[in-house]
């Protein structure tokens, strides 16, 4: 029997393991997939998600969740993923990275931050430009244009399934193109935004 989020949290705070198991079973798989997008290692993703749940159980008496349980869990997993990624960069590389990757030696952090963002954008844009023409149009309408698959299908006189397939194809191609640059992209993101 499903119970409301508020009841689940109340029951967890009262040491109810069945309520805790319910949210674990409900969200574990989706959270692991979500985490995998960041850490790119299935075992690490599963461990990080388990750590989030362990942390919730450990803090159950004092835990205060002001959003939905789902939003809280996804935010916690994202944060834990970023922390994990930061720790994967060797200490000496972290030290060098701030100066060498973003070249922040002259103190103009805003200008350099903008350069880092532009560099990230150029990597992604080059990968998008390399897509086949039809695929590129559909992908841009979906991502940049903010159109739904149904709207794109109607606009281009295609089936929704064709649009889905083309967006899936685009994402696979982008992943292939950007994977070799993953370390550099993560360094830029970590040093600029954290």
UniProtKB/TrEMBL annotation:
Keyword terms, alphabetized: Sigma factor, Transcription, Transcription regulation
PROSITE patterns membership: HTH_LUXR_1
InterPro entries (alphabetical): RNA_pol_sigma-70-like, RNA_pol_sigma-70_dom, RNA_pol_sigma70_bacteroid, RNA_pol_sigma70_r2, RNA_pol_sigma70_r4_t2, RNA_pol_sigma_r2, RNA_pol_sigma_r3/r4-like, Tscrpt_reg_LuxR_C
Domain of life: Bacteria
HTH luxR-type domain segment(s): 146-173
Record NCBIfam families: Sig70_bacteroi1 (TIGR02985), sigma70-ECF (TIGR02937)
Family: Belongs to the sigma-70 factor family. ECF subfamily.
Full protein name: RNA polymerase sigma-70 factor
Biological source species: Reichenbachiella ulvae
């Amino acid at each position: 029997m499903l119970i409301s989020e508020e009841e689940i949290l109340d029951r967890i705070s009262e040491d109810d393991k069945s309520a805790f198991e319910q949210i674990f079973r409900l969200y574990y798989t989706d959270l692991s997939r979500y985490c995998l997008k960041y850490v790119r290692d299935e075992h690490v993703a599963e461990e990080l998600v388990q750590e989030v749940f362990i942390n919730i159980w450990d803090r159950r008496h004092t835990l205060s969740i002001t959003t939905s349980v789902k939003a809280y869990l996804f935010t916690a997993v994202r944060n834990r993923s970023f922390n994990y990624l930061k720790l994967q960069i060797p200490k000496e590389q972290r030290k060098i990275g701030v100066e060498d990757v973003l070249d922040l030696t002259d103190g103009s952090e805003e200008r350099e931050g903008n350069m880092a963002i532009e560099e990230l954008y150029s990597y992604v844009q080059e990968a998008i430009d390399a897509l086949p023409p039809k695929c590129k149009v559909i992908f841009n309408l979906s991502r940049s244009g903010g159109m739904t698959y149904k709207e794109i299908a109607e606009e281009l006189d295609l089936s929704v399934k064709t649009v889905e397939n083309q967006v899936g194809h685009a994402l696979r191609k982008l992943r292939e193109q950007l994977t070799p640059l993953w370390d550099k992209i993560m360094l830029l993101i970590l040093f600029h935004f954290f």
